[in-house]
């Protein structure tokens, strides 16, 4: 079972990485604006929630798949500890991204480009988003948009030890992205201002780095001794 500190880390990754995710989702953000046009406020909120439900569900599905894949490797010599080491390294890289020391994670997005080229035509057929059914399906497509920060979360799912733990980790990551996606206007500006504040970013980076280096230490200890 995924521990509470790990879930808190997943929330942090999602919250502080959501700004980059929104910038990456140019077409998705445009579709979100289309969804808002000529809709009542209650209908707009409903569609936003359905869109996020689909997106977070896709994260959880991927997390379950990667968690199951990692679980099959647990009995293969030291491979489980190597996966754990990979997860720790990704958390350290995420800390570097949050603190803006190094944004190398975003370069991983090239690996998902081929898959996205197959999914993108399906997403465009769902426009305009004017029903909950379309919103959920569009959100499922959105979740497969190439994103280095999502890949960093999947690396942790790979080392989580089970499909359930991997799914929970990625679900928590998705929940962390909700404020940036759901909030609009003044509320969104306040959330973004909080994320951009240097002291907040440094504190979040230190927390991520702590869990990352702790994971690396445990993995190396197991491998060496």
Tell me what you see in this structure.
- By secondary structure, this protein is an all-alpha fold.
- It has one domain.
- It is about 80% helix and about 0% strand.
- The protein has ten helices and no strands.
- It has helices spanning about 5-25, 25-35, 40-70, 80-100, 115-125, 130-140, 150-160, 165-180, 185-195, 200-225.
- The longest helix is centred in the first third of the chain and has 32 residues, at about 40-70.
- The protein is globular and about 65 Å long.
- The model has no long low-confidence stretch (mean pLDDT about 80).
Give a quick summary of the entry.
The protein has about 220 residues and is mostly helical.
Mean pLDDT: 79
Give the end-to-end Cα distance, rounded to a whole number of Å: 25 Å
Extract low-pLDDT stretches.
none
Report the count of strand segments.
Answer: 0
Q: How many structural domains?
A: 1
Query: Tell me, what's the shape?
Result: globular
Order of helices and strands: HHHHHHHHHH
Q: Tell me the Rg in angstroms.
A: 18 Å
Class from secondary-structure proportions? mainly alpha
Q: How helical, in percent, are the residues?
A: over 70%
Query: Beta-sheet strand percentage?
Result: under 5%
Count the DSSP helices.
10
Instruction: Please describe the biggest sheet, giving its number of strands, its sense, and whether it closes into a barrel.
Output: none
